[in-house]
Amino acid sequence: MADQRSVTRPAGPAGSGGPVTDQDTVEPVDRGTDAGPAQPADRQGRDGVAGVAYLADRQEPGGAEPGGWALSAGGSAAGDGASTTGPDRATLRLALVVGGLVLAVLLGFGLGRVNGRPTDPPAATAATAVGEHTHAPGTGAHQHDGTGTDSSGDAATGLSVSSGGYTLVPSGGEFAAGRAGELRFQIRDAQRRPVTRFAVVHDKPMHLVVVRRDLTGFQHLHPTMAADGTWSVPLTLPQPGVWRAYTDFTAVADDGRQTPATLGVDLVAPGEYAPRPLPAPATRATVDGFTVDYEGTPQVGAAVPFRFTARDPAGRPAALERYLGAYGHLVALREGDLGYLHVHPGPGPTTDTVTFWLTAPGPGNYRMYLDFQVAGVVRAAEFTLTVR
Question: What string of H, E and C letters represents the secondary structure of 242-269?
């Protein structure tokens, strides 16, 4: 197929030699084949010689064309195959080739200046897996937030009901403070269809974290799903106030792609809300007679090891047991917007110590909740952490 180019007619009145403007006439030109020179698409030269593209508005008496310019592939104005007054054909061909090259360079430079930047060559397309979450349950230290894909330095999740093409849709149910209730919800995809396929991560397809907005009353629950994609779980909100519920899951799309997401929604228990101040930062917490200490200094945007050590009420190293495929679970929530982090440790035998790699999504005060199991009982140790 012939390649098409555009040739622009100079502007201005005939014979003026004026500059080219945006109103110039554009005429497509057929490049032709390798055997011959460029030819005009719809017109032939005035002297009847093929391969000549004249762009003058009109020809002045005497053959002069001051109002335009011409590209000639051969022949003479007289059409007799020889020139009587000008240079020979070889010289004309050489001049045309050199002039064409110069014109091409100037046009390329001009287009680059108009665009404001050089044109980049097409980049190779690379297939990228989005949101892959294929590790085996309980293996590999990782963090459920957006720090792996967000370059802004603040990638806390759970701040909205929609993320990554998925939406948390709660249904019915009012909560009275201190009374048993039930939370029901669906996860819907971008087409508003209930999602029914979830990857089992850390022994469960769905992790539900509930906490009051003053960061008290932490609960880590595991709902069950009906065939229509509706999740349900018994839930008691012990105190009046606004509570935040986080769904932490990995959805499986129709094409098998896995997308981890953390979505959040507010729940309300009517009554007088008396928020409690956040406890001061500390590296030691006690729960049911167990003492838990940690070592580690958080950094924004950098993974830092946090090492937790637990001792039983007698002061002996606590024999930590696997719970949901790991020796501990760590959730951190930021004071104010309740930005969410869910961190798990790597696998391996342990006695009283478990290590997490934590990446702080941004500065602020955080409340950390460490779930650990001893003798079949799960407990949560709570810490206040300040990230600068």
Answer: EEEEEEEEEEECCCCCEEEEEEEEEEEE
Amino acid at 209: V
DSSP state of 104: H
User: Whole-angstrom Cα distance, residue 239 to residue 233?
Assistant: 18
* Nearest alpha carbon to residue 194 among 213, 166, 158: 166
330 closest CA partner among 285, 277, 364: 285
Q: How far apart are CA 7 and CA 20, in angstroms?
A: 12
3-state SS class at 352: coil
Nearest to 181 by CA among 219, 216, 213, 227: 219
Give the residue carrying structure tokens 């799960």: 378
109-155 confidence digits (pLDDT tens): 444 343 333 333 333 222 222 233 333 333 334 444 433 333 333 56
Nearest partner of 351 among 326, 321, 382, judged by Cα: 321
Q: In terms of pTM, does the model score above 0.90?
A: no
